[in-house]
Amino acid sequence: MSNESFFLDEEEIPFAEGQTIIQAALSAGKYIPHLCYHPEFKPHGSCKLCTVRIDSRTITTEDGQTVKIPGRAAASCTTPAQAGQHVESETDELRDLRRTLVQMLLVEGNHYCPSCEKSGKCMLQGLAYDLGVMDPHFPQYFSKREVDASHADILLDFNRCILCELCVRASAEMDKKNVFSLSGRGNTKHLICNSESGMLGDTNLAATDKAANVCPVGVILHKRHGFEVPYGQRRFDKAPISDNAVQYAPVKEQV
Amino acid sequence: MGNVTSNGIGPDDSGAVQAVLSRHKHDASRLMQILREVQEGLTWLSPAVLTAIANGLKLPRARVEGVAGFYHFFHTESLGRYRVLWSDNITDRMAGNADLMARMCKKLWLKPGDVSEDGLVSVGTTSCTGMCDQGPALLVNYRPITRMTADRVDKIVDLIRKKVPLEEWPSEYFLVEDNIRRKDALLDNGLAPGDALRALKSPQEMVDTIKASGLRGRGGAGFSTGQKWEFCRAAVGTGANAAHYVVCNADEGEPGTFKDRVLLNSYADLVFEGMTVAGYVIGAKKGLVYLRGEYRFLLDKLNAVLEARRAAKLLGQSILGQTGFDFDIEIHLGAGAYVCGEETALLESLEGKRGVPRKRPPFPVSSGYLGQPTAVNNVETLASAALIAAKGAAWYKAIGTAKSSGTKILSISGDCQRPGIYEYPYGVTVAQVLADCGARDTQACQIAGASGLCVAPGEFGRKIAFEDIPTGGSFMVFDNSRDMFQVARNFVHFFVDESCGFCTPCRVGTTLLKNVMDKISDGHGGEYDINDAWRIIRTLKTASHCGLGQTAGNCVADTLQKFRPSYELRLNVRDFEPAFDLDSALSKMREVTGRDDPGAHFHIAHRKSKSGVGAKGGDAS
Amino acid sequence: MNASAPPPKRKLLVATTSLAGCFGCHMSFLDIDERILDLVELVDFDRSPITDIKHCSPNCDLGIIEGGVCNAENVHVLHEFRKNCKILIAMGACAINGGLPAQRNSLDIRDILAAVYAQPGRGVHIPNDPEIPLLLNEVHPLHEVVKIDYFLPGCPPSGDAIWKFLTDLLAGRTPTLGHGLIHYD
Predict the structure, then answer these.
(1) How many Cα atoms are found within 13 Å in the side-chain-facing hemisphere of B78?
(2) pLDDT digits (tens, 9 = 90+) for A155-208
(3) Which of A231, B494, B526, C69 is deepest in the core (most CB within 10 A)?
(4) Which residues belong to any copy of the NADH-ubiquinone oxidoreductase 51kDa subunit iron-sulphur binding domain (chain B) (predicted)?
């Protein structure tokens, strides 16, 4: 199937024609942090957690010193893999960058893990644990955001939205319903529902829709199903997010 | 949240919406134009109107709402019969727009951003409107008014109060001057409409000519125009609607730039001729001009030029009587979004979507407008291409420097006696430009706009050229009386307003950087905050999705290096200061308890209580 | 730090307090169980709910603070800790991002008080005794008010996490928690 390869942190990674760097890496069992990437969807490239450096060079100066020239930075989810390229992911610089990006998301929204039904299986939380994020560092926005409980089965808590657009993509591409979209821009960008009232209850979302089950954080929640798994037995209590990277490998039929 | 129950759509509104939809043949890719035209009729886009448009275009309603919510010039709530937007570029600030706007608000009994209680008027700010040579400027219902003075403010307030229609306002208010101060090869071209077309050789020869001329993109990035056209010409269209397109990027949004305004106002024929040359070369039948919403006032004039060209057989079917040479041009208007100057965001916008930059690859030359091969070129690039077609590559190549052939039009504003348009052969020094425009006691130039380079006096010997200082044309001058920290802070605010919000680093980082700059401006900044600024700038530069985010921190990085005292003089002596003002954090409780005793305040003493006073430097992060 | 000198046998002086928190972190601190005997070999406790000492000595080494900043008194206590402690540690979710108390930030404090102190038929009487510290407009994490040196997340951090964190710190290592010990809930 594949006879071409590139190097990720000096390890040879095979890839198939058309695969992006993260897709090939995850298929090979190498974890690259990510939030907006999802194995069932085409890469999106907005969270930037998967940023890598490509083809850094080391040169020797006239006075004999070796200097590293950093390669270009790119989102590994949207950058096509190319034979022979050298990709860096687990470097101090990139780990620090990723911590900063997680901290940015943590202060932008209102992320109070102790009262969140998604705690223990939240991708943002799991990733923050893995990166060793001990604090949000920046001043909190304390954004004033709404909760929408108008739907019979689904609750929306916009406080936790990280704008990964997975629900938007799932509803448009898999469910063919277009229940979610985005409005505003910049720091006013926000999720909206496909109804004149703006309420989720006035849309045709069903609890079984992909869009209702794809949220990586605690925005789209199923009513009557909170806190079902005890503390200590939840997904990231048991194993870190970076464990078993092939679980994130792209499935064949991406929409 | 309001409007849970629909406020309904009246029969008049419904008729207006249907008329616009029919005019655009219910084509969803024309959503931007539809929203603008509906809004021009109804003054705002109500929830019911959005539903009607969505139904008419068979689009999800949320998608229509999302597009309306993206652009500054679309409003989903009523903002009054008169919407006044003051241009808020640093040059407008320097010309005193803040006082003038405050005067206007006071006279109208309004707070900025609010709508008057009678629903008559709202007053706010917007990003640079491209009138820096004749500011302070504003837009009233998206029509520009220049050279604002206190007297003009008073008269406009009077006109608004008396509800005088805009058409009856004194015409001199709307006067926009070209202010061309220096002409060179392009502005003094001596060509008549059609000259470039009559000189056309085979498409391949034209590609070779453009390549040989050394013409590079004038928007700032400097990609070889000949190569772009060659790639586009070689690319194959896909599907039943396979086609090639020429797109003219007239979304001139970089703060301090206004040369495209002048080119389109007085050299439109040359620009359209350049588009036609491009169409001929790449095999396109259709060209689109993406005109920034701020330049709405040029639309009728440009359409008239297009009509005249069609009548003269310079546009349309069988151009110059040549069978198979078909090309026509249509003008699309933007609606207030700097990011749409990025070519892939522009294409999204042209297709009626939110102006979010695309992922690359694929590049527009292979998959651009509607997924078809598209050549996106700057206004000045296209005009230059027409010039080269008429006068030849060798003639053009002889102008400028070895690596930067031809001329560059600079938009000069700020502290100089003669702001306006200056065309120079590439290679001119900053010092020469400053001397020509009558700048005195200059402490800095911001070249290439908010995302560009801040040049200090020690560098005034540098050249305007791709190999030294590349620029799209913005050239803002600051004399010794200016505060370069506040210049950078103005730019940082600009990027917050203009970030599209797609990627994390830009959406959050621009706001965090603004918060740092505001904190320093308020006198609460310390070394800790400077370190934070660097960390944010690094993140923006490394991880942002497009050029907007990657360059959004440049102004702070440059001024921190070249004008560091302007920051340091504002810093508190201590390295750490609270993120918010402690004393005002008790304001609401003082209000509701009526307390004003010492315990109800944090006295200034607390700021000096910590040990280590005077300790500066050292990484606090 | 002087790297050549052998570590002094001097015990480190530790102060702790709870601001806008629930004392859960202090309770969790006690979950280090018998290891507290090892700990008191290494440290002495200064101002702390455990000792009931009311103010910090001027030469504390470590200040461990639970809870966020919700009122004027919290600010004064935090300033006292910053002034007197070489190293300040924010312990627990509330200290780090405001936690549960900060969930009031989505509401205006004036509306909250008007609702809480409304007496049917007798209007609103919000206490204004100078003895009562005024509430801040919003609840803030500690690092927005003073510089914080280390953060120990959790709601509360487990006894094991606290033990690991402190033993790292007391040994002069930058504290790390790792999988299983790092928790935000």
Answers:
(1) 14
(2) 999 999 999 999 999 999 999 999 999 999 999 999 999 999 999 999 999 999
(3) C69
(4) 485-530
Distances (CA, A) of A213 to A210, A219, B428, C184: 5, 10, 60, 23
User: Has residue B609 got a pLDDT over 50?
Assistant: no
Q: CA C88, CA C91: separation in Å to the nearest integer? A: 10
Reported ipTM: the value is: 0.96
Angle at B198 between CA B194 and CA B202, to 5 degrees: 130
- Give the H or E element holding residue A75: strand A72-75
Instruction: Kindly write down the DSSP assignment for every residue of B115-132, as one continuous string.
Output: BPTTS-EEEEEES--S-G
One domain for residues B491 and B445: no
Q: Token pair 């309420």 is at which residue?
A: A199
CA end-to-end span of chain C: 35
Is B274 within the bounds of a domain?
yes
Nearest CA in chain C to A159: C106
Task: Note whether B384 and B446 are same-domain residues.
Answer: no
Q: How many CA atoms lie within 13 A of B584 on its CB side?
A: 4
Chain A CB contacts of B514 under 8 Å are none
- Rounded Cα distance, B612 and B536, in Å: 26
The CATH code that applies to domain A144-226 is 3.30.70.20
Give the integer Cα–Cα distance in Å for B74 and B43: 9
Structure-token pair, residue B417: 């006696």
The pLDDT, as a whole number, for residue B614 is 34
* Structure confidence by residue, pLDDT tens digits, B113-168: 999 999 999 999 999 999 999 999 999 999 999 999 999 999 999 999 999 999 99
Q: Give domain C12-101+135-170's CATH number out of 3.40.50.700, 3.40.190.10, 3.40.50.20, 2.40.50.180.
A: 3.40.50.700
- Does B103 score more than 50 pLDDT? yes
CB contact under 8 A, A106 and C98: no
Closest Cβ opposite residue C99 in set A112, A142, A240: A112
Q: Which CATH class is domain A4-90?
A: alpha beta
The amino acid occupying position B491 is F
Bridge partners of residue A14, in order along the sequence: A5
